[in-house]
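Researcher: Next entry: RNA-binding S4 domain-containing protein (Picea sitchensis).
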Amino acid sequence: MAMGMDMYYFCSRVTHHLLARSRSRRSMSMWVRRPLFLLPLHHHHLITLTHTTSPLTTTRAPPNNAAVAALKYEKEDHLKGLSKGSAESPVKLILVQAQKAASGREIFHSDFLMPPVVEDALSAIKKLSDVEALVQGGYPQAERCRLSIGHTDVISSAPDAVSALSISGNFTFDPASHGDFLGAVLATGIRREKVGDILLQGEKGAQIIVVPELVDYIVSSLTQVHNVPVSCSPIPLLALEFQPPRTKVLKSVEASLRVDAIASAGFQMSRSKLVNLISGGDVRVNWSEVTKNGTLLKTGDIISIKGKGRVQLGEIKTTRKGKFAVDLIRYL
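Model: Predicted structure:
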């Protein structure tokens, strides 16, 4: 009995000691790992990269000490000139892979990126020596694109980083929107970053661009879009059916280049309604949400409103009275 009590006391002391050490380590790890948050990976900015030295695999590239060290002295220079509100973290991660590519012979592929991130990443990569990047979206006007990054000696041999699928069904009496097709694809468990542009084909269905390694999975998993049975099949990139966007040019004279003034003219709606849309988070400039009515625009900026389309600010001229005569390109 005495031996049993002694054993119970011994086990209790050991358990208490281990729990105390566990708490101590968890507390200390919070401080030890804190510097790694220099490269955060938010859920809406996740970037994964694949390389072509082996069959394509999709692995998350988490921040680590080597990544932080690689960027410690160069990140400020390489990241100069990033557009306001750009996703700096994805660009940092791409730079880490670019630096690895410079010292090796691997070709890395990013996820599908929005135009501002692509532009910022290309600008940063140009400052590195012996590294080049290819933009791959599947067709010339592609919006969402992947970057293939490699040493200048091997980048010309980069394989296609995108594949195309045809989604066929009878949508004559039940038309499906871009959101319907995207939602159906994401419902199979695929992340948004793995899907590129979606080209609608009316009553026939749509064509979508995805990462090559998920083609077989989508073919076997996607069976319905908006209550319409569908079949999926791989198609060559050359079989993609796309047309240049239809546009019309509007001319307006405005007292300022504020987003509420320009968007009001471009979308032909009242200023008060536009202000409400901004406050509701429905207005974006260059794919970034606008929160202030007084945000100033410049030539080339693209304004988009949820459910309303896009307007691009074209040429700007100053009138004799100090106002702004602007060309507004409305995408139909």
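Model: Note for the record: The chain is about 30% helix and 25% strand.
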